[in-house]
Amino acid sequence: MSPTRVQVPPGLDEQRGLGPDWARWLDRLPARAGGLVEEWELTPVGDPLHGYTSLVLPVTTADGERAALKVTFDGDEESEHEGLALQRWGGRGAVRLLRADPHRRALLLEWLDGCDLLDAWDVEACEVVGALYADLHVQAPPQLRTVASYVGRWLDGLERHGRDVPVPRRYVDQALSLGRDLVADTGGGVRLVHGDLHYANVMAAGRAPWLAIDPKPMSGDPHYEPAPMLWNRMAELGGPAAVGSLRDGLRRRFLTLVDAAGLDEDRARDWVVVRMVLNAGWAVDDARRAGRGLTRDERDWITRCVAVTKAVQD
User: Which residues are catalytic?
Assistant: First the structure.
């Protein structure tokens, strides 16, 4: 019998353009995923899916249980300890971990066949996410990297190249100042932080109304969390069905999250500013590494980052 080989979805294979590390991982991925299928006695039951950094294969286990085999890019530092976070949550507020192989960056997860929050009214979605924070912000495993260690390094990069970022200089200076203050101050608490909780990373389940998936786990200030709920689904806030202006919509989301989660409004706002300016800087970094100018999509993204930064403060 020939070994199982899993086909890489075209959308994931496009990541070859991000560099040689990605190309090497994608070359290894079919055999790696196939080996896991055989070793863990899994049966593929659907076409492979993918995220930005991972392959997800629908499977059944030897016991006939539906599950998802997830294999993540080796170089994705932020998701390295995803299994530890899921183990710590133990299925409370998050997808349940069934098995893990940290060396191969592989996880076997319970299958969630419900919808996500992409089609929910955005205020309702913010209430759901704000309530989930209470389950997720528990004591962090000691192996996790800290929010402060990540953000401190990212701020160093922004400081070096901030003048090249097409963002008003006052926002760059503000992000640098606020960021340094936030990483030096533990007044916001130290908990297990999901890091990337947004509409597509929350799914309905039979055993719970909503569960979080795909964490980028860190140990640190829970006020770090809200920004992804603002920068996702922004197009609808400026569309014909929008209620009020883009600014009104973003502020409505932000305040709903803060109220539902019981967060300190000022501290959460400061983290939004820091994260959005850092995001704009990364778009410039990506273009620089590729030896080219900013693409139209990257310029649109930077415009979005500025809009969120402005909206939460005006």
Answer: 196
